[in-house]
Amino acid sequence: MTTDASDLTLHTDGRAARIVLNRPRALNALTHGMLLRIHEALDAWAADEGVATVVLTGTGERGLCAGADIRALHDDAKLGGARARRFFRDEYLLNLAIARYAKPYVAVMDGITMGGGVGLSAHGAVRVVTERSQVAMPETRIGLVPDVGGSHLLAHAPGELGTHFALTAASMGPGDAILLGFADTFVPARSLAAFTGALATGDAAETVREFATEAPAAEIAAQREWIDTCYAADTVEEILDRLLGCGVVEAKEAAEQIRAKSPTALKVTLAALRRARTHTTLAQTLEQEYRVSCAALDTHDLVEGIRAQVVDKDRNPRWSPAALSQVTPDEVARFFAPQPDGGLGLAAGLG
User: Fold this and answer.
1) Long-range contact pairs involving 340-345 (C-beta distance under 8 Å, separation at least 24)
2) Per the CB 3.0–4.6 Å rule, which of 59, 137, 244, 265 could disulfide with 146?
3) Where are the domains of the chain?
4) Mind telling me which Pfam families this protein's record contains (predicted)?
5) CB 117 within 8 Å of CB 64
6) What CA–CA distance (Å, rounded) separates 266 from 294?
7) Pairing relationship of beta strands 8-13 and 16-21 according to DSSP bridges
């Protein structure tokens, strides 16, 4: 999980400091070294009176960031996961630093923004989406659980919308991302160059007011009735029963999407979101996510899920356990147990 200097560009442009993710062939997937360099730069810019605003963008036409380098995560998990645990620690501490940053942090979530890309952007002061934005927390596809503070955002989304997107791993368009609290500002893609250019000299808030336009309607809003009813159930099994029994085509499709995911990851995800609803701070949820992600490194499903999606690309993961009924409450509880290293040291009271 190292990085090459060319993977990331850090520079100042007038009064704006710029973070440019530069791995377009890998959809700007994050390495450990990239995270460390970003955190170091943020600390330096916080103390630099010449920097008024920080701007995050990505190179390439496809999107801001596809998330972490999960191929590297797969390889390290097979060796015991020591490097992956350090990656998670530094990633989540960076997510919290972004959320607490004292200067305007503007994230341009153009195109695909998933997983770790959400962690770098959705906790900033200004979260910009365009008509091309596709925002997702797709972790259940690979036997993992929404992290990088994503479970915090999903847990506090309106009604049960967050539960729906967490379990199905579906993508949000720009309107959906704003409705769920992952973004707050819509700027048409054709205006992005002028918008980011203006941040070099202008006040961030004034620049946002100048370039922001009305966002497209949230596509998921029309589905709220069955989503709130079906996903309010206490178990994944009951959620599936409600989805299949409510007579709505979209609900049946959601059930089929959920059935393809790791049974263990589904049950832990639901438990994580319900617990995160009781958290009052992002720090509490990040502490919980660290426990869950580290526990996932010791499971069969994480390695198998990445194998199926990224390594062999057969899209045919063989989950173990293979059925929801085989995932016991004790197995779910194991994911929330304190880690031997003491965790992130951010929040007490998780139990």
Assistant:
1) 341/85, 343/287, 343/290, 343/291, 344/89, 344/92, 344/93, 344/286, 344/287, 344/290
2) 137
3) 5-334
4) ECH_2 (PF16113)
5) yes
6) 16
7) antiparallel
Please say whether the beta carbons of 99 and 93 come within 8 A.
Answer: no
Q: What is the pLDDT of residues 106-127, one digit of tens each?
A: 999 999 999 999 999 999 999 9
Number of neighbours of residue 141 by Cβ within 10 angstroms: 21
φ and ψ at residue 213, rounded to 5 degrees: -130, 175
Residue pointed to by tokens 């520079």: 11
Three-state DSSP class for residue 299:
coil
SS3 at position 176? helix
Q: What is the pLDDT of residue 5?
A: 72
HEC per residue, 253-285: HHHHHHHCCCHHHHHHHHHHHHHHCCCCCHHHH
Return the pLDDT at 351. Answer: 58
pLDDT in tens, 230-278: 999 999 999 999 999 999 999 999 999 999 999 999 999 999 999 999 9
Instruction: Report the residue count for the chain.
Output: 351
CB 267 within 8 A of CB 296: no
Bridge-based pairing of strands 126-129 and 16-21 is unpaired
Phi, psi of 199 (to 5 degrees): -70, -15
Q: Which two tokens stand for residue 146?
A: 């929404």
Which residues on adjacent β-strands are paired with residue 24? none
Q: How many CB atoms lie within 10 A of CB 214?
A: 7
**Least confident residue range of 4-8, 82-86, 91-95:** 4-8
The predicted model gives 171-194 an average pLDDT of 98
Continuous segment of H or E residues that includes residue 136 = strand 134-136
Domain 5-334 fold: 2-enoyl-CoA Hydratase; Chain A, domain 1 (3.90.226)
* Residue 111 · residue 131 · CB < 8 Å: no
Q: From 2, 126, 136, select the one nearest 66 (Cα to Cα).
A: 136
pLDDT of 349 strictly over 70: no
CA-based nearest residue to 39, from 99, 113, 91, 100: 91
